């Protein structure tokens, strides 16, 4: 019997994750509808890339990430675009006039069913200070676009964990999905 032919067995279920055994595979599933998160690619009117810094328990370290959040965790049925703008505002204090889903794919296909949507946020305007909700301690960084990659390398050298999706996000700032440079 192939692993995908076996019946799944839930061995643990929490508020946001469940652990599943299916044949010889062990993996996690997102409990919220769709198992989808959004990562927001945002550049301010001053041409600064918006990053967030926070302590992440699973890696026991401070991380540098692009703003991100679960789709539909607050309002069931919420679109990816609406979720992305809500998370951007909550985490960074910036809102966006437009949000465009660029692509959707798995985050770690051998370990989780979670998918991530890369969302480009444009028409940014400041509406608050950010910092996340009452359970979060987020520091917002606005780094000049031309210096963003070098800044990330510096942060890595300082011991920060960097979300690997940052590099894809930086590429998407500069390119269309077909690889051609953006205007």
UniProtKB/TrEMBL annotation:
Residues 33-174 form the Nudix hydrolase domain. GO terms for biological process: nucleoside phosphate metabolic process; ribose phosphate metabolic process. Pfam families: NUDIX. Its cofactor is Mg(2+). PROSITE patterns: NUDIX (PS51462). It catalyses: GDP-alpha-D-mannose + H2O = alpha-D-mannose 1-phosphate + GMP + 2 H(+). This is GDP-mannose pyrophosphatase. One of its GO terms (molecular function) is hydrolase activity. InterPro entries: NUDIX_hydrolase-like_dom_sf, NUDIX_hydrolase_dom. Keywords: Hydrolase. The keyword Hydrolase applies. Belongs to the Nudix hydrolase family. NudK subfamily.
């Amino acid at each position: 019997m192939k692993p995908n032919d076996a019946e799944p067995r839930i061995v643990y279920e929490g508020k946001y994750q469940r652990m599943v055994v299916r044949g010889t595979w062990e993996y996690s599933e997102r409990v919220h509808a769709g198992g989808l998160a959004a990562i927001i690619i945002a550049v301010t009117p001053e041409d600064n890339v918006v990053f967030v810094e926070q302590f992440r328990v699973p890696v026991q370290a401070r991380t540098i990430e692009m703003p991100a959040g679960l789709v539909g965790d607050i309002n069931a049925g919420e679109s990816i675009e609406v979720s992305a703008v809500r998370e951007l505002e909550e985490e960074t204090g910036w809102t966006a006039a437009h949000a465009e889903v660029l692509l959707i794919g798995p985050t770690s296909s051998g370990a989780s069913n979670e998918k991530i949507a890369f969302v480009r946020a444009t028409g940014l305007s400041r509406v608050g200070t950010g910092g996340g909700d009452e359970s979060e301690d987020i520091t917002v960084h606005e780094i000049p676009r031309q210096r963003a990659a070098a800044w990330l390398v510096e942060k890595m050298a300082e011991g920060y964990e960097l979300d690997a999706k940052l590099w894809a996000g930086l590429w998407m700032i500069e390119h269309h999905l077909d690889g051609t440079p953006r205007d």
